């Protein structure tokens, strides 16, 4: 068992295997496994995705649903005798934009909170900036915000992984 660094960022595309890999990292730690879910079941398809994710995790996992106050949820959930998984940052970003929250302020608050957390956290997020520049101002703003959010978390993280085809690629490893 390898001890998780304080902050790990797991990036990848849809269905790349990032959530499963992040879950395995957290399950490899002793103690509690806390899953902070940022998704909201806005329709039947999303409700089914959430159900499948929950069914995949065992009884060792405690799930907290928090679409907006990620900093508060992390402060309450992080502890020295376990690890926290946040899935996912891009859904959190969507929630912030939908609630008309200031994304830059929320990002700064999240990054500022990371050094004070009592235990390790693994963030999962969708890498959305690998394609063409999207049409539409809102979509472009989302991609821009996601890129800046990822850069900020990656700078603060000790470990950054990129998943593709179920294979992790280490972009940043603990010193």
Task: Give a verbal description of the structure.
The chain has 175 residues and is α/β, with parallel strands linked by helices. It has a single domain (7-172), classed as Rossmann fold, CATH 3.40.50.300. It has 6 helices and 7 strands, in the order E-H-E-H-E-H-E-H-H-E-H-E-E. It has helices at 18-27, 44-56, 70-77, 89-98, 103-113, 137-156, and strands at residues 7-12, 32-37, 61-65, 82-87, 121-126, 159-164, 167-172. It has a 7-stranded mixed β-sheet, with helices on both faces. A hairpin with a 2-residue loop joins strand 6 (159-164) and strand 7 (167-172). Helix 4 (89-98) crosses helix 6 (137-156) and helix 5 packs parallel to helix 6 (137-156). The chain is globular, with a radius of gyration of 15 Å.
CATH class: Alpha Beta
Q: Which structural category do the helix and sheet elements fall into? A: alpha/beta
- Rg over alpha carbons: 15 Å
Helix content: 40-55%
Write the layout of secondary structure elements.
Blueprint: E1 7-12, H1 18-27, E2 32-37, H2 44-56, E3 61-65, H3 70-77, E4 82-87, H4 89-98, H5 103-113, E5 121-126, H6 137-156, E6 159-164, E7 167-172
Parallel strand pairs: 1-5, 1-6, 2-3, 2-4, 4-5
Antiparallel strand pairs: 6-7
Helix pairs in contact: 4-6, 5-6
